[in-house]
Specification:
- This protein is an all-alpha fold.
- The chain folds into 2 domains: 1-71, no CATH class; 73-150, no CATH class.
- It is built from 5 helices and no strands.
- It has helices at 3-25, 40-62, 75-95, 97-112, 117-138.
- Helix 1 runs antiparallel to helix 2 and helix 3 packs antiparallel against helix 4.
Length: 150
């Protein structure tokens, strides 16, 4: 990528991260039946986004020389992941967190690297199951459970 684009992107992501942090402070700190409130996740995401954007900004300033060649944009993987994200959002409540997240991650992993299907299945299943267990059982939060027919 071009260094100028990376600098602009780092500033935009920094602003979005700060907005996430500010916006999360306006959410309630607890929800019904949950120890972990809805403000925690966007706050943590905002902090991560701010830290990564600062890192990107400094990396672009360090590597002033050697502008890379213009890379061909790949629209097909972007559209697949974008559609998978929309479907994930629309089906999360009805199908449940574990199944929907597993399928979403599997589609995204296969879009990025087709050759490792078994690895993608294992990572997707482990991640969705582990996050569900940690959030629901350990932190006593709430996530959409299993579908009614399951």
């Amino acid at each position: 990528m071009a260094i100028k684009f990376d600098r602009i992107a780092s500033i935009v992501f920094l602003a979005v991260g700060v907005l996430f942090i500010i916006g999360s402070r306006h959410l309630s700190s607890s929800s019904y039946g949950s120890v972990v409130g809805p403000d925690i996740f966007p706050f943590v995401l905002g902090i991560i986004l701010v830290l990564l954007s600062i890192r990107l900004f400094f990396e672009t300033n360090v590597s002033k020389g050697g502008q890379s060649k213009t890379e061909k944009l790949e629209y097909k993987p972007f559209l697949i992941i974008f559609l998978a994200t929309l479907i994930y959002i629309l089906t999360l409540e009805t199908i449940g967190y574990v199944i929907t997240t597993f399928l979403f991650l599997l589609v995204c992993f296969q879009t990025m690297e087709r050759s490792k299907l078994l690895t993608s299945i294992i990572i997707s299943a482990a991640f969705s199951g582990l996050v569900y267990f940690l959030f629901v059982d350990v932190l006593k939060g709430t996530l959409p459970g299993w579908p009614i027919w399951f």
